[in-house]
Amino acid sequence: MFKKILIANRGEIACRVIKTARRMGIATVAVYSDADARALFVQMADEAVHIGPAPAAESYLIADKIIAACKQTGAEAVHPGYGFLSERASFVEALAAENIEFIGPPAGAIAAMGDKIESKKLAKAAGVNVVPGFVGEIEDTDHAVRISAEIGYPVMMKASAGGGGKGMRLAYSEKDVREGFEATKREGLNSFGDDRVFIEKFILDPRHIEIQVLGDKHGNVLYFNERECSIQRRHQKVVEEAPSPFVTPEMRRKMGEQAVALSQAVGYHSAGTVELIVSGADTTGESFYFLEMNTRLQVEHPVTEAITGVDLVELMIRVAAGEKLEMTQDDVKIDGWSIETRIYAEDPYRGFLPSTGRLVRYATPVEAWDGGIRGVAQENGGGVRIDSGVQEGGEVSIFYDPMIAKLVTWGKTRDQAADLQVEALDRVVLEGLGHNVDFLSALMQHPRFRSGNMTTGFIAEEYPEGFEGAAASEDMKRAVAAWIAGAECTERARAGRISERINGAPSPGSSWTVKLDGEIYTVELGDGGATVDGNWIAGTWDWQPGMRLSTITADDAEYGVQLQRDGAWWKLTTHGRKYRGMALPSRLATHAAHMIEKVPPDTSKMLLCPMPGLLVKLHVGEGDAVEAGQPLATVEAMKMENILRAEKAGTVDTINASEGETLVVDAVILELE
Question: By the 8 A CB rule, do 264 and 214 touch?
Answer without folding.
Answer: no
